[in-house]
Write a structure and sequence with these properties.
single chain; Four Helix Bundle (Hemerythrin (Met), subunit A); 0% strand; binds zinc ion
């Protein structure tokens, strides 16, 4: 993929990621009487929601970091745009269109981190 196109994709993805509001973390609620849910259950639910929200926020920050890293790399080595860091083969356009911040092809990614590959679900694994 050409550097200019890849840069466009990265900037677009960055905009989308930044526009996504951080998940709201609800303060622990104590008014069990109002909801009719026993205090303990309410507490557990609230903790679970907070965990989910902070996981999402963490993921979002991670993706942003990777986008910025890819943009810097593009800036300093435009010749390496879309090339796998590991085997230096071009990363397929299809992969870059979904994940412009990918720095390795799927094969190298899988070799480096086989466990993660086994557990990943769906198309987008946000390298
Ligand atoms: Zn590779």
């Amino acid at each position: 993929m050409k550097a200019a196109r890849l840069k466009g994709l990265l900037i677009e993805l960055r905009k989308q990621t930044v526009a996504e509001k951080p998940a709201r973390i609800e303060p622990n609620r104590r008014d069990a009487a109002a909801s009719g849910v026993p205090d303990e259950d309410e507490q557990a639910l609230s903790e679970m929601l907070q965990t989910l929200a902070s996981q999402r926020n963490k993921k979002q920050a991670e993706v942003l970091k990777q986008i910025d890293r890819a943009l810097r790399r593009l800036e300093s080595d435009p010749d390496l745009a879309g090339l796998c860091e590991e085997c230096e083969e071009p990363i397929p356009d299809k992969r870059l269109e979904v994940m412009p911040h990918a720095t390795m092809c799927a094969a190298c990614r899988g070799k480096r981190d086989p466990k993660r590959r086994q557990t990943r679900r769906g198309l987008i694994d946000f390298d």
